[in-house]
């Protein structure tokens, strides 16, 4: 996983909380794929369990795989959806993608002018790269001859060529619309936003540290989630368990798998490896000392061993890329996610070793993960997400969108959006949840990207 590389501005913002009514069934609209029969079956099952009106089920003619092109996404999902709910725009708080709705939308397509420039820039790169490689051989020879003065001059030349290559490479990425793919659900969150650049991400205006003034005169951000997984029967089971556990309250232990990385707020505003590792430790401390939960923190590079985490209700850790480790024995209603770069690339592939798919098969009712490289900033901070979940004040989907920093990006929430495992037994007060990591600096990326 890469850490955040783009420059950041220094604007720090705090949310002014505005009380409102609790999120309910009337706020949820379900998206189904009419070409996948199980999609509507699951939607009807959810409506029956949660009391969502059946006319909130919206059907679309979509491909049956997990990927959809940008053109098909817009023509057969986003545009028809806007049309169907235009007169209910202010009532639609949650869009719930059901099994069968594609998971990932492909990249944007360069314009004819961009393609022409792209061909030219790529041709310009080759002679510069060749010159850089030849110069490298010269530098090696000069080092052997111990010609210090000439060696220093050639090194400066090489540095200038490296800078030029870097600028050309950046131009190629820009012209080719690199990293303009996204999770379908994250893109749908900005359904009412138009004209924004699809390259990389947009700031999520629902994030709890975004000042209310930044939302002023902006279109609404729609909270999104999905009920999905390797099998339709499993997805129905997620719904059933969420409703059953919520009625009595989630009970069980907490397991946090940090790595022992140091954190220096002067070097990392909180979005790098150190910042997220510190947030894992802060999660453990918050839930142990304030919520009085039974917490096990592993602060070493090694992961929890297979089968070592018994009676697990909450889990968060890292870093085993696309290689699930069966470390937890989950209680019914468990919520868990693993911070790594590819853990929701597929939710349906039966042979996949990604964490999200396997966590669902091992019994969790809610998880989250990226459909492609998210950078660390693509994940909610563990102390914030699990902290708000433990308050019992917010549903699963509210906890996610309250703590997810980015929209039009890679991360997807899987689970019943109305699930509130601590509604019956709150463990924390909202004011006990602090910005994480302590000393970090929430910043807005320049130009929204």
Can you describe what's shown?
The chain has 449 residues and is an alpha/beta fold. It has helices spanning 37-50, 70-85, 112-145, 148-175, 184-188, 212-215, 232-248, 273-290, 355-361, 382-391, 396-403; strands spanning 28-33, 57-60, 67-68, 94-98, 104-105, 182-183, 202-203, 223-227, 253-257, 295-298, 309-317, 328-338, 367-370, 406-407, 411-414. The protein starts with 27 loop residues before the first strand and ends in a 35-residue tail after the last strand.
In short:
The protein has 449 residues and is an alpha/beta fold. Helix content is 36%, strand content 15%.
What global shape is seen?
Answer: globular
The helix/strand class is alpha/beta
**Percent of sequence in beta strands:** 5-15%
Distance between the termini: 18 Å
* Number of helical segments with 4 or more residues: 11
Helix content: 25-40%
> What sequence of helices (H) and strands (E) makes up the elements?
EHEEHEEHHEHEHEHEHEEEHEHHEE
- The average pLDDT is 92
Rg (CA only) = 24 Å
Q: What is the subunit organization of this protein?
A: single chain
Strand order of the largest sheet: 2-1-4-8
Annotation, overall tally of beta strands: 15
Poorly predicted residue ranges: 3-19, 444-449
Q: Largest sheet at a glance?
A: 4 strands, parallel
